[in-house]
Amino acid sequence: MESNAQLNVLLLGKKRAGKTVSGNTILGREVFMSEKSSKSVTRDVAVKSGTVNGSVTVVDTPGFFDTQLKPEELMTEIARSVYLSSPGPHAFLIVFRVIDRFTEQEQQIPQMIEMMFGQDVLQYSIILFTHRDQLKGQNIENLTEENCALRHLLGRFHVFNNEIQNSREQVNDLLQKTDSMIEQKGGGHYSNQMFEDAQRFRREEEKRRQREILKEEVERQSENPEFKNFLTKYQPTLRLSTFALGRNMVAGEFIGMCIGGAVGAACGLIGGPAGAAVGVFVGGAVGVAVGAIVHASAK
């Protein structure tokens, strides 16, 4: 990808795997609530953006196997992550703690991700191990070689030391691996019918918001003192034309309105601007009536 391209990243993994702190590490600042506090573990989808060799958007998700989160709640938040990451993530970062044993739960995660996001999703995935500072000289390949579920992803994994979030080298290395993976897939983001539908619904949402913003702006203008002053000044000019448009006048009525309005305005000038406005409207109305009689007589 080009350095100024938009990169969308989706973080997935178990509770306390280090997703949130990894999002902060990628963006180089504390933008997501840290998982260090038991009260601040991510239970809702969060989206943050920043500039890291281009524009990067990170979507943080609730942890898998979180007993405090009902299945319906997790389903809703996963759907929200799809919605907010549309038209689709360029990379799914599947997060594991490097010190954790790969239990049956961990081995189920890739299959769960395929079930949720589609069978090709792992081709756009990178394993991200966290807590590198606790690796203590062990080789990362040795920790993963016995895991059959992850073996086909080897070659696309990365390790973070989240204790040094200001280390840009580890982030740049991750982004290089991400760029390489994206290029191998043709340079685009991951998508399927679910993400395409999410994009369509988001576009509809944006159109609705624009309509609501326009409606609110019109309502604010109607209460705007400056607009009221402007309206008062130009009422005589606009009133007759809008009156004509509202009546769908025939030619005789329109000509009569114009002549009557002009005469009425001239007479009304004696009373100042207010009198002129009244004269325009009254004279125009009389002109309309006369014009209508003439039109009827001509038939």
Give a verbal description of the structure.
It comes from Sinocyclocheilus anshuiensis. It is a single chain. The chain has 299 residues and is of the alpha/beta class. It folds into three domains: 186 residues, P-loop containing nucleotide triphosphate hydrolases (Rossmann fold); 32 residues; 74 residues, no CATH class. It contains ten helices and six strands; from the N terminus they run E-H-E-E-H-E-H-E-H-H-E-H-H-H-H-H. The relative contact order is 0.10. About 12% of the residues have low confidence.
Summarize the structure.
The protein is α/β, with parallel strands linked by helices. It has helices spanning 19-27, 71-85, 104-117, 140-144, 148-151, 168-184, 193-222, 225-247, 251-268, 272-298; strands at 6-13, 46-51, 55-60, 91-97, 125-130, 157-159. The longest helix has 30 residues, at 193-222.
Structure characteristics:
Rossmann fold; six-stranded mixed beta sheet; 10 helices; G_AIG1
CATH superfamily of the largest domain: P-loop containing nucleotide triphosphate hydrolases
CATH class of the largest domain: Alpha Beta
**H-E order:** EHEEHEHEHHEHHHHH
Number of strands: 6
Helix content: 40-55%
Structural class computed from helices and strand pairing? alpha/beta
| Strand composition percent | 5-15%
- Could you list the spans in which at least 5 consecutive residues all have pLDDT below 50? 249-254, 268-296
The tally of structural domains comes to: 3
CATH architecture of the largest domain: 3-Layer(aba) Sandwich
